[in-house]
């Protein structure tokens, strides 16, 4: 596993964006690939340096993995974007402006004024389609000890575990209790934690869910997930008496 601490956040986000575009191309024909490539170029503002840095971040992630998790495909997509920029001599400021204008005409042939998308508005949640392409799967483990004992919901991407929800349920008290939720740094901000909670809630319907008051995640996360059935009760924490506290 690579240490990502030296890759600035912005490059990491760019790499993640390239990765999700690459995943969406699984099984795509040449036309869709060409169209996606244009979208990628527009997303990166035809900025050669920025594409290079994102490609380097993807390659760094790809190198350390025993299994290909799509980073090699993301790097390849960015290399293809770079080849386009270089072929169009869009590597200096004037060339870049001209290339962006051409790209704009191709992506938006109508005479409507066009504004480049504001990246800060981009919602960081994955469409179902991408989750499918990413081979993301839930894996439930049996409770440890008694039925109310700790159980795990693993988020698996291919053969790799990228997240873990550690929780307990008590049918007698109709209570669900979240002990801990971890998502790999590289996959944060994509709504996977909330999806994990919902997956547990779907498996055990109708329960009241709680978590520990010392939970390290920011309050906004629980506000988001408590909009659903069996929302979290902020002022009623701790497990019920039937739940063994340790594994
Ligand atoms: Zn109980």
Question: Can you give keywords for this protein?
Answer:
247 residues, 8 helices, 2 domains, binds zinc ion, Aminopeptidase, 5 strands, single chain
Question: What would you note in describing this structure?
Answer:
The protein has 247 residues and is of the alpha+beta class. It folds into two domains: 4-112, no CATH class; 136-225, Aminopeptidase, CATH 3.40.630. It is 42% helix and 15% strand. The protein is built from eight helices and five strands. It has a five-stranded mixed β-sheet. The longest helix is centred in the first third of the chain and has 17 residues, at 48-64. It binds zinc ion (ZN). Zinc ion is lined by residues 170, 172-173, 175, 240, 242.
What's the arrangement of secondary structure elements?
Elements lengths: L8 H16 L5 H14 L4 H17 L6 H17 L5 H15 L20 H6 L2 E5 L10 E7 L2 E11 L4 E9 L8 H12 L4 E4 L7 H7 L22
Parallel strand pairs: 4-5
Antiparallel strand pairs: 1-2, 2-3, 3-4
Helix pairs in contact: 1-3, 1-4, 2-4, 2-5, 3-4
The site of zinc ion has 6 residues, from loops.
């Amino acid at each position: 596993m690579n240490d990502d601490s030296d890759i600035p956040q912005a490059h990491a986000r760019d790499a993640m964006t390239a990765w999700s575009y690459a995943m969406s191309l699984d099984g795509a024909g040449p036309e869709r690939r060409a169209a996606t490539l244009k979208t990628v170029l527009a997303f990166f503002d035809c900025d050669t340096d920025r594409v290079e840095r994102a490609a380097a971040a993807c390659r760094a992630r790809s190198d350390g993995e025993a299994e290909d998790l799509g980073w090699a495909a993301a790097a390849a997509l960015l290399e293809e974007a770079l080849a386009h920029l270089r072929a169009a001599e869009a590597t200096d400021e004037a060339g870049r402006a001209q290339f962006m204008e051409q790209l704009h005409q191709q992506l938006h042939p109508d005479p409507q004024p066009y504004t480049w998308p504001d990246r800060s508005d981009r919602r960081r949640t994955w469409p179902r389609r991408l989750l499918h392409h990413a081979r993301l799967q839930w894996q439930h483990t049996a409770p440890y000890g008694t039925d109310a004992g700790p159980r795990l919901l693993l988020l698996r991407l291919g053969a790799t575990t990228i997240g873990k929800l550690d929780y307990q349920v008590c049918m007698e008290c109709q209570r669900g209790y979240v002990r801990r939720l971890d998502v790999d740094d590289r996959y944060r901000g994509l709504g996977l934690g909330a999806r994990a909670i919902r997956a547990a809630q779907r498996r055990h319907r109708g329960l009241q869910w709680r978590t520990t008051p010392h939970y390290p995640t920011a309050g906004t996360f629980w506000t988001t997930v408590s909009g659903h059935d069996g929302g979290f009760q902020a002022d009623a924490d701790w497990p019920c008496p039937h739940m063994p506290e340790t594994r």
